[in-house]
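Thread title: Can someone regenerate the structure for this chain?

I was given the following input by a collaborator and told the matching structure tokens would be attached. They weren't. Posting the sequence so someone can regenerate them.
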Amino acid sequence: MPPYALTPRNIQIRDNFDAIAPRYDLTNRVISFGIDLHWRRVAIRQLAGLPPRAVVLDLACGTCDMALEILRQRRAARVVGADLSRTMLGLARKKPAAAAVTLVNAPAEALPFRDGAFDAVTCRIAAHHFGNVAAAIRQVHRVLRPGGSFLVQDILGHDDPAAHAFITEVERRRDPSHVRAYRASEWKAFLRAAGLTVMDEGVMRKVRPWDEWTGRTRMTPEALQSLELFVRRAPERCRAAFDFELAGERITAFTDRMILLRADRD
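Best answer:
Regenerated them for you:
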């Protein structure tokens, strides 16, 4: 495959995650328990039917939590992690267990692997940052062997246009590298167009404590104040769509949804 020139969006995402990587990893250790850990394990159970010498790619692997869980559960003989951020990969390499994972610096839209290289590909809570989700899924299809599985978990877009626009603005103000969350129908269309067939799906609700959620990014006090004002002034039905909890002038939490899909290569 010829060299891939990073797009301005790729560069923005890379630079953002390079900057927040140490804080992200520290916070992620805390949120890796409870429902997040449960769903990671639910996803990995979908890999139970892989062949004994299976090779799995974890796309946008960050600091390798998903890749390491796959190895802990003995779902694959070998795991490769790919991520756009060298800083995230550097933090992953500091984890002793990550020595068993092959780490590759690459964008989702241009994976440097041969066709059919993997028995499965996983991608956990990252696709809303991709500049071109359709191109990334075409790459997933290319690197999967026939009959291989793609497991993707991500924030689920809202079907109501006003609520969708509201939460997208909230997400982007909190993290400028956020592109957008996709509705279930959009995910299925992307997968179908790439030649992947949805075999299983599920949705969960996730409560986001406001201070922890906003604290994971590099928001200035002024930006946070502006975001909170935007939320408080939003139409009630938009806030209600995500169960925003307010205590006086303070925002304490909101709830979004995650989608988990398994799609197999035809």
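The domain at 8-156+177-207+257-265 is CATH 3.40.50.150 (Rossmann fold).
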